Amino acid sequence: MLNIPHLINSQRAYFTTGKTKPIQLRLQALKQLYKSVKKHEEKIHEALFSDFKKPLYESMSSETGIVVRELQLTIKQLEFWARPKKVKGSLLNFPARDYIYYEPYGTTLIIAPWNYPYQLALTPLIGAIAAGNTVVLKPSELTPATSHILDTIIQEVFPSDHVAVVQGAIPETTELLAQRWDYIFFTGSVLVGKIVAKAAAKHLTPTTLELGGKNPCVIDDSVNVSLVAKRIVWGKFLNAGQTCIAPDYILIESSIKTSFLEALKKEIKSAYSTDVKTSPDFARIINEKNFDRLAKMLEGVSIVMGGQTDRDALFIAPTVIDNPSLDSFVMEDEIFGPILPVIPYQTKADIERIISRYEKPLSGYIFSRKRSFSNWFLTRFSFGGGAVNDTVIQFVNEALPFGGVGHSGIGGYHGKHTFLTFSHAKAIVKKGNWLDIPIRYAPYKGKNNILRFLLRWL
Ligand code: NAD
């Protein structure tokens, strides 16, 4: 078995040599990574299909495509991002020039989940390397084919004292978390996020926690229901609903519930045909444990569409549930599967009462033509990020930090934000020597009024 403490010591020693720091070496590593991911692209798609029948189109758009874009952007921008940034100085320090220097944390750990097993492992890794760190990557044990190809790519590009993959499940992750790290980046459930936070606290290790939540999607009566249904069906049933930012449940103005349910049925049929099981565009549930959890959500509720399940094939059809009780199992926790509860509301107070039952979610969506209503939603509720009149699309813009708030996570990443996440922003004042104003030095006698003046006016 791999000696984890030994691996970390060798990465720490490598970091101490300074070899991860020169920008040209970082760029060289990222370019090598780019070559390798392009070379293995087909195998990555095959691995994703073998792990949970992820459709090729979804693998291209939400896995390999994202990684390639992230690499291209980082390679293009890294020199600019990493340059010390001059900031406005304080007159109180005159004469001086002020800067932010970006320095790598050191030896970092990235723990990835199974639902986007390729992209959620490599996107943070790109930023960690760009920022000059070493990385131990722990991919998910639930997607063995993808985790294997990740290992192949990493071994092809990096010496293990720079970047290494540690395969394994809870015992290996527990051992990893028992070590001292300079940064931990975790994507996964709230439950495990708490375990990671606790382990990190022992060494005061900074963390990014990318977690989940129960994402509301509110629809008022001003919308075009067909368009709304189309955008919701896409965002909800992508990856068979196993998307952390998928709408979890719908809150719809009660007068348009019936027409919306009809539009949903029509859209689901048009996307996946009447026999979803044979559709090449619909993924499977990751394992029996999650299948059983999801199947339990279908008990004792009113199913208006879908509901077909096949445990052997890990298949659950896109399912719409009409107005489940808030105390039902489906409304207890994050669904994380192809089940969509639709709950009618009459007043804003109804919306407030329902959304406030849950912890702050990772995303929130509002469909409305009334700007005042969407603005009310955006400012009334706290959530990681979201969209007005669409779902999930906030993910694709690297200029937007992607992350949660409260129980849905701490920190954000994508594009430059990933580089910043893995960098310590070191504040530096470069003081001039040609002038030395004596006011700050003791003895202070007779200087109080001058200080008052300066504090007030500078
Ligand atoms: P998970 O928390 O079960 O597992 C994530 C990682 O933690 C895996 O690598 C796993 O091996 C490890 N792990 C599991 N149990 C552990 C334990 N007891 N101790 C230490 N390590 C442990 O999550 P998952 O099932 O892989 O992913 C689904 C969850 O992730 C959902 O809640 C979803 O919302 C969330 N998620 C969040 C994001 C995001 O970007 N915020 C993205 C994808 C998934």
Helix residue percentage = 40-55%
Shape: globular
Name the average pLDDT: 97
Low-confidence spans: pLDDT under 50, at least 5 residues?
A: none
**DSSP E strands, number:** 18
Main sheet properties: 7 strands, mixed
CATH topology of the largest domain: Aldehyde Dehydrogenase, Chain A, domain 1
State the name of the first-level CATH class of the largest domain.
Alpha Beta
Structural class: alpha/beta
Sheet with most strands: strand arrangement: 10-13-14-9-8-15-16
The hetero molecules present are: nicotinamide-adenine-dinucleotide
Number of helices: 15
CATH superfamily of the largest domain, by name, is Aldehyde Dehydrogenase, Chain A, domain 1
Can you describe this structure?
The chain has helices at residues 4-17, 23-39, 41-52, 56-82, 119-130, 144-157, 170-177, 190-202, 225-237, 257-272, 288-296, 348-355, 371-380, 416-421, 448-457, and strands at residues 85-87, 96-104, 107-111, 134-138, 163-165, 183-187, 207-210, 216-219, 249-253, 303-305, 309-310, 315-316, 319-322, 339-345, 363-367, 385-388, 409-410, 423-431. The strands form four sheets. Strands 10-13-14-9-8-15-16 form a seven-stranded mixed sheet, sandwiched between helices. Strand 1 and strand 2 (96-104) form a beta hairpin. It is globular, with a radius of gyration of 25 Å. With 458 residues, it is of the alpha/beta class. The structure holds nicotinamide-adenine-dinucleotide. Residues 111-115, 120, 138, 140-141, 169-170, 173-174, 187-189, 192, 195, 210-212, 244, 334, 336, 362, 404, 409 line the site of nicotinamide-adenine-dinucleotide (NAD).
